[in-house]
Amino acid sequence: ATGTSVGTLTTTGSATYTGTIGATQAIKLLNTGATGATDTYSGPVKAVNTHITGAATNVTFTQGLTGALNFDVTGGTVTIGAGYNMTGAVTANGNCGTLAMAGAGEVTGLVGVDATHTLAAVTVAGAGVDNFDNTVFATTMTLAGASTVNLKGGFTGTTLAYGGSGATVVV
Fold first, then answer.
1. How wide is the angle at C-alpha 12 spanned by C-alphas 56 and 136, nearest 5°?
2. DSSP 105-147
């Protein structure tokens, strides 16, 4: 049916996935990032829920992710490609997971939920403007490069670090 989500995609190892996932309908569930895996999605991905299921994993969405993202276990990094967006909320089961914005992108939903369900880290690299439309709950937020970061909902965490020259934060 048009407008409803269908199906589940579960990955179990390292791979590169090409093409668009959820082009006409969002998939219901994407389970990716098995322990120790490196997964790269080279096309746009639209999933109602995406779960990072393993520790010490790296998942890259080179053309962005639409839908909710959840880190199920400690460890793991999700990178959103430069110039693309994370359209949805990013949550974690405890203090875990790293969201990395490669530059000039936007996160439309909450990052973390509260001080108990926070991300371990958020990093912003590259040049350009990155917008966080809601509150960012993360233990550490690191700005690398000459980026401008708009924290429209503010930042709640322990450390806001400037790893590059020329980074600007607007709250």
1. 45
2. -EE-S-BSSSSSS-EEEEEE-SSEEEEE-S-EEEEEEEE-SSE
For β-strands 65-71 and 45-52, DSSP reports them as: parallel
DSSP alpha helices (H): ranges in the chain?
A: none
* pTM summary value: 0.95
Which has more pLDDT, 118 or 163?
Answer: 118
Q: 123-162, pLDDT tens digit by residue?
A: 999 888 999 999 999 999 999 888 899 999 999 999 999 8
What does the CA dihedral 60, 62, 63, 64 come to, rounded to 10 degrees?
30
The predicted-structure confidence for 13-30, as pLDDT tens digits, reads as follows 999 999 999 998 999 999
At 168 the three-state DSSP class reads strand
In total, the chain counts a number of residues equal to: 171
Cα within 13 Å of Cα(100), Cβ side: 16
SS3 for 31?
strand
